[in-house]
Write a structure and sequence with these properties.
Layout lengths: L16 H19 L3 H7 L4 H29 L2 H16 L8 H15 L4 H11 L2 E2 L2 E2 L3 H26 L4 H18 L24 H6 L4 H13 L2 H13 L4 H51 L4 H9 L1 H19 L5 H31 L4 H15 L2 H4 L6
Helix pairs in contact: 1-7, 1-8, 3-4, 3-5, 3-15, 4-5, 4-6, 4-8, 6-15, 7-12, 10-14, 10-15, 10-16, 11-12, 11-15, 12-13, 12-14, 12-16
Length: about 400
């Protein structure tokens, strides 16, 4: 059975990758998990008006979308993704503490800009390193199970979400999450430096003119790879279709009479399904269907999931739709990682991951979040039909991805 992330590679060091990557991903997602739910509360406590919170958070999202590809290019040009990631994590750990000392909109905006610039590489670079490691075969086995480390991160995120509220309660202030985030990200910086050295890859600055700044720029070189732009489009359609769900699923459940416990349970059910795919089913699906087939399965699951929610059915139907999150998010993410592993040379790995995270997933989600408000005003819960349509559009495009995901030498 062909390993979904396999790529031809030279012999490398002993297999010490798994515990080090597990440590990195757990620390990363603990950091994100404690900060995400309470950052809006912290901003209000530091003097932002409730109406200004969206501006502060939206500015960070927009800046990260711009900076992500540039950070990926820098990591590839230097041939030092571990070092760039560690520097970004340290910058993020320091900048997030600025929120504790900033008061009012102006200072909070300045801190937000610094934090967004620092955290931009923190999303794509761990994936770029992990999927590259997962592609390495030693003694007939992969050095790393990417799904396992990504699933461990998702589980850590759940625990951190649950623990953040308790920590704020014990500390008497939501600002404690800033210090916890700084702690976890600071430790993650050292974990990044402790990762196994990647297999030797020529820094982009020393690569052939076709891949260096003297020829096509790194971003253009990645976009020119056969199959990359179709992957961007498929990922944008399927991952972006979650925007209406993020905005209005919980509100629709509350309107249907479900209490806070039931709403939280349904939301947690989707994350449990995500972890299950990362840990248990992802590699089996990739081996059986191939990356293009898994993307098609994710698109079909999206059509079904959003249609069920659009029909506003009974609780068992909603619970079933939440279980499909394992396919619509986790399975499609794993398939995209497998395609990138086979499609993109190592010297462009960080650039490719950054472009996928910013243009494929982030930009589409941001734009669809903006559209979701007017869509809800127009159609109410029927806005989920539009998300189902996006997945239906993605379906025929998925079948062309299998041919793109063929082995390429680094």
């Amino acid at each position: 059975m062909t390993h979904p992330f396999r790529r031809r590679s030279p012999p490398i060091a002993p297999p010490t990758a798994r515990p080090r990557y597990l440590l990195l991903f757990v620390l990363l997602f603990l950091g994100w998990g404690v900060l995400s739910p309470l950052l809006p509360v912290v901003l209000v406590e530091q003097g932002a008006a409730p109406s200004q919170v969206a501006l502060l958070l939206g500015l960070g999202v927009g800046l990260r979308l711009v900076v992500m590809p540039l950070a990926g290019v820098l990591a590839d040009r230097l041939g030092a993704p571990r070092q760039v990631l560690a520097a970004a994590l340290l910058g993020a750990a320091l900048s997030v503490l600025g929120y504790a000392f900033a008061c009012g909109l102006g200072p909070l905006l300045l801190v937000g800009v610094a934090h967004a610039l620092a955290t931009a590489p923190v999303g794509p670079l761990p994936d770029a390193l992990a999927v590259r490691e997962a592609a390495r075969i030693e003694a007939g086995r992969p050095r790393l199970n990417y799904g396992m480390v990504r699933g461990a991160g998702a589980a850590a995120f759940i625990l951190a979400n649950l623990g953040a509220g308790k920590a704020a309660e014990l500390a008497g202030t939501p600002g404690i999450v800033l210090w916890l985030n700084a702690l976890f990200f600071g430790l993650a910086a050292f974990a990044a430096l402790g990762l196994p050295r990647p297999a030797a890859a020529t820094p982009l600055a020393e690569a052939s003119p076709a891949l260096s700044g003297r020829g096509r720029r790194a971003i253009a070189a990645v976009l020119a790879l056969p199959g990359f732009r179709p992957l961007l489009l498929v990922s944008a359609l399927i991952q972006g279709s979650h925007a209406f769900y993020i905005s209005y699923a919980a509100l629709s459940w509350q309107a249907a009479g479900l209490g806070p416990f039931a709403v939280n349970a349904l939301w947690s059910l989707s994350v449990v399904a995500e972890v299950a795919v990362f840990f248990l089913f992802g590699r089996w699906l990739l081996a059986g269907l191939g990356p293009g087939g898994v993307c098609a399965l994710a698109a079909l699951a999206g059509v079904l999931r959003w249609s069920v929610l659009a029909l506003d059915g009974p609780l068992p139907a909603i619970a079933f739709s939440q279980l499909l999150h394992g396919l619509t998010f986790a399975a499609q993410h794993l398939a995209a990682m497998a395609i990138l592993t086979r499609l993109v040379p190592d010297r462009l790995a960080a650039t490719a991951q950054s472009l996928l995270a910013s243009l494929g997933n982030g930009l589409a989600t941001a734009l669809l979040l903006l559209v979701s408000g007017p869509l809800h005003d127009w159609l109410g819960i029927g806005g989920f039909w539009a998300m189902a349509a996006l997945c239906a559009i993605a379906l025929p495009l998925c079948f062309g991805l299998g041919g793109a995901a063929r082995d390429r030498s680094p």
